[in-house]
Write a structure and sequence with these properties.
The complex is a heterodimer of chains A (573) and B (200). With 573 residues, chain A is mainly α. Chain A folds into 2 domains: 357 residues, no CATH class; 175 residues, no CATH class. Chain A contains 17 helices and 5 strands. In chain A, a hairpin with a 5-residue loop joins strand 1 and strand 2. In chain A, helix 8 packs parallel to helix 10, helix 9 packs parallel to helix 17 and helix 12 crosses helix 13. The relative contact order of chain A is 0.12. Chain B has 200 residues and is mainly α. In chain B, strand 1 and strand 2 form a beta hairpin. In chain B, helix 5 packs across helix 6. Chain B is elongated, with a radius of gyration of 24 Å. The interface between A and B is large, with 125 and 104 residues.
Chain lengths: 573, 200
Amino acid sequence: MNVYGWAQIFLYFLVILALTRPMGNYLYRVFEGERKPFPGIFGAAEYFVYRALMVDKNKEQTWKEYAFSLFIFSFFGILALYALQRLQFFLPFNPQTLEGVTPELAFNTAVSFVTNTNWQAYPGESTMGYLVQMAGLAWQNFLSAGAGIAVAFALARGLTRKANQAKTATIGNFWVDITRCTIYVLLPLSLLGALFLVSQGVIQNINPYREIVTLEGTRQSVAMGPVASQEIIKELGTNGGGFFNANSSHPFENPTPLTNFIEMVLIFLIPAGLTYTYGRMSGNRRQGWVLFCAMAILFMTGTAACYQAESHPNPILAGLPLDHSQGNMEGKEVRFGTSGSALFTVITTAASCGAVNSMHDSYTPMGGLVPLVNIMLGEVVFGGTGAGLYGMLIYAILAVFIAGLMVGRTPEYLGKKIEIREMQYAMAYILIFPVIVLITAAWSAAAPYGAGSVSNGGPHGLSQILYAASSAGGNNGSAFAGLNANTPWWNIMLGIAMLAGRFLMIVPVLAIGGSMAAKKDIPPGPGTFPTDGFLFVILLTGAVIIIGALTFFPALSIGPIVEHFMAQAGRRF
Amino acid sequence: MKNISLKKELITALLFTVFSMVVLGIVYPFFMNAVSGLLFHSQAHGSFIAGENGRIVGSTLIAQRFVNPAYFQPRPSTAGDDGYNASSSGGSNLGPTSEKLRKRVAAEIERLRKENPDAPFPIPVELVTASASGLDPHLTIPGALWQVPRIAKARRVTQDRVKDVVCVNEENRTLFVLGEPRVNVLLLNIALDRQFGKAR
């Protein structure tokens, strides 16, 4: 650890803090404001899209209609992406003449990119041609991010709208939300950001791989591709699927410490901004800052723990004549160092991004525990675009409920009663995730066709399985990448886990939005628990930690935790 | 009524799918290709660099293999079967209790010890650990300086002159805090050739 490393971490946090309000205001204007930004350009494009695609922008949807639109759109997305991969051989812009992708892998990848997971069971540069990368994978990078943001707005509208308004029980229009998100936010930021990335050295072309003779006279084949245009939305939309196998550690994806910093900022930009947007929607900005504070506490704790662990020597190298002052450098790049790597790792798993700039599998046991815990907490620490906010709001409802139990009153949130039905939906949301993760992990660990993919022995093997299941169920997409996930079992099982982790969890979210939208506003009384103060920050943070810990501690204790003690004792596998 | 709206919804979804694929998946990336090729032609095509005689010798961003003792060597690579394969990036993914990792590092230490009899101990850890991409083009300053005795001997120049080349090529932290100080191995080796003649 050194002062530069900590300075980088604090600078990062300050930048996010400074950007939260302007980004939040911008998002508010785009989705809820009467006067939208840049009507001449964006407004015209929006109008054109509605005309061409037969969308009635004034028609509000109930939660069921909203869910139906989202699901049917996602279903078409999966079909199209599957077809593109299978037919790759016959399609243009495939200079390496890569073959069609196998059915299981194509299914897994299609689901993965549509659910904003971006789990990758394949090495990009030797599996996916340029057309699949551009018109398939990058395309869904935009839309899956947009869908997440749309759902977050749907829930936020349900919670904040007053029932005596005319729009009772409706929560917006899915097509309008996803159109606005793309036109006003994702596409313009991507255009600017991609150009910046190229200026730093991220490649952007559709040339064949370049064959060169090196300075010493050996041959080297250098992979090419339209990387920058995909790299930017991969971060901005918290997608995380790398163009190359090495993801954001590849110098063509992340060439300098500055691109590393900007990529990290982009991951949290929308999730952090959304907390402020939510505050404005509720009519009390402190409601948003409360969520921000709870997220910030969890984020800084995780970052400190991970940086601390990774700046220590790798325990497997103890006793060798090495200078460990760089920290644990296996699976890390020199230009990022342990600080830039650990910070990226915490951010990418706190958000549901899953891009990696270092190999999590080679982290020390405690360093690798942090990203795993981040995913298991439900990725509510800023979280994915949209998914982070709606996840945290479910926890907020739960925290209010717990507070209500303590004082024996019907809980209220933002002046609306939380009743049996909302709690049932909230509990469903909370429980679906561990059910998916633990069943997938346990089954895979017990069966030879699952456990056979493990590449590290001892408890680390179990950690690999646990990480894969959590990453898929939590729609993260990062991995302990030594696990050979390109087998029929893992492709299909994780594909199902990703589908369930996305769509089964969106249903209760939208349902809560719908049922809260219909509720009457009740004025706060003396027994109302205030949800805009520091006490609520503590309660909310506690709820996230306790639920996560109770659910996953047993599994973690036989994975990374026992591995930590074995590593200290010098055990090798 | 219900059926009509369902049908309309399906048509909208289908149109939306096709339209967004064309705009976001084709128009946007090709537009980026054109603009970045115009403004940042070299970077967009891989930051390739020419050596002494004008021949392209590699990308400044991608590590390549160096075995000649008169050149700086990059970090070990797990990209592809033999390492430094720039169309097969990736790390070792060996964990912190992996016997395999320890054996690999021990073998690497043995090799470095043999090739660098005059170098001091301990060895900077980055020289025996594989990077995340397998294509890490950089070394830390200590990692480069550690190799100086070997290079000076092979090129029959003083160590101080080689050290100077390292210092001149040092890249510092961006904005004082971002990243780590480092040197680019390919640029360093091109500079060596320019200064002391092509390595034999």
